What does this fold into?
Amino acid sequence: MTKTSGTTIPRIREAAQRGAQIVCLKELFNAQYFAKSQRHERFDIAEPIPGPTTIAMQQVAKELGVVIIVPIFERQARGVYRNSAAIIDADGSLLGVYRKMHIPDDPLFNEKFYFTPGDAAEDDEIDRSSAVARQASGFRVWRTRFADVGVLICWDQWYPEAARITSLLGAEVLFYPTAIGWHPKEKAEFGRAQVDAWRTVQRSHAIANGVYVAVVNRVGHEKPIPGQPGLEFWGTSFLADPFGIVIAEGSTGQEEILVGEVDLGRMEEVRRNWPFLRDRRIDAYAGLDRRFID
Amino acid sequence: MTKTSGTTIPRIREAAQRGAQIVCLKELFNAQYFAKSQRHERFDIAEPIPGPTTIAMQQVAKELGVVIIVPIFERQARGVYRNSAAIIDADGSLLGVYRKMHIPDDPLFNEKFYFTPGDAAEDDEIDRSSAVARQASGFRVWRTRFADVGVLICWDQWYPEAARITSLLGAEVLFYPTAIGWHPKEKAEFGRAQVDAWRTVQRSHAIANGVYVAVVNRVGHEKPIPGQPGLEFWGTSFLADPFGIVIAEGSTGQEEILVGEVDLGRMEEVRRNWPFLRDRRIDAYAGLDRRFID
It folds into this structure.
């Protein structure tokens, strides 16, 4: 485990002491965000699941009796590396792995260079009771001790399809470990609108699906290469209720532990009052499997 | 045409004088919102398309050189009534009809009693160059003189699927004629959160798809039945740009003409910078055609 993750476990203990039952770490939690440029040696950071980091986290989960969502750079095979999250139950068992499905590629976010996209689930795998061995395909929900959780990673957060399918699988909370920030030269002009768009689209997943949405973003300015402006991650982690109301929110600049409360009764109440799931036109959505229709 | 629509044409003229090129009226524009209760005689309000109201609007569109979106209660056949919108081009031609796909049914919104849902498009009809005669099935886009527009109606606004498909069909602006309001007994406790959720989910369609979103809501307190509290429609019509920024917004209480400007160059710029359409996982969205996956 890296020095970074060495500071993480004390924070998980602190979160548990403050009452947290499900702990979600930020995207690729145990290193700086390394995809700012294309460097072959950075594949060395990747490790298998299970592997040293997730095994250590399994021990912590069991000791504290908390669920932990552990996003790391996964080495699945030589040449097959993933942007993944291990889901560890409160008894320390590894429930499965989510592999980021939507991979971005933009200046300072060279993710298509590093990450093989997550596999689509086979039709017969769209079944949340499926075996752990098949738990790393497509969109998934895991029944943890405290709630049924879905995990999606960063760029996935812009896709209503991902939130919808994960909600239809029975998710009560959608967790989004994230690494999003400002290009320093854009911050003054566009920074506020960018954060607002990001917050809005994720609150909308809560509203459209009647689920809790928990977003865990990096924070702080990372400058890995001398002379490069680096990225300033904008924090603003938050928990939204099934009506899209933000019930806990972090700062834009400070590393912190954000604790919020999930009320599953609230979820049922919201879905009864604004019953969107009742009226979906599943006979009319064929166009969603097209990239563009012209 | 009813008295209500008799006041509408002068307003369309005024909008055109103020520079409007595409005019969208509110949902079921030419009557009070009649679905508050179930009354068989209210089917008498319905009329065919083309019919008296849309023919009158075709004349106005041609005279003023503006596109008009005309939402009315459509009588398609004896016993087949729809919540529809006619799309009329600036030369007065009737381009087609959108029939509301997602039909709500909740206290004071008895829409499943009145409205047959819109038909799903056949696969071979997902083609925006198809003949006018087939233009009343499923989600659609119409090439008007001034922009390629999609029309969705009210409850459709809660469904990311509808916004996505209409955007993939090439919509530059998604219009949402709407009739949403407060139950008077809920307004104090929930009113603000309801408007915020409604605004948020529609702004998110703009963001997720990189399109303009124009929402045209009813306004004012309608009390059709003595002793019934009626509904207070909350106005707040708005135009959001492809980044979700609200660039024009109406009040919650006043009837008004809201004019905003669409910049198609802005749409291309936003989609280049946050290229969500590039990275959709169309191989992995099979779950979207299920109501729930358990």
Observations:
- The radius of gyration of chain A is 18 Å.
- Chain A has seven helices and 13 strands.
- Chain A touches chain B through 59 residues (CB under 8 Å).
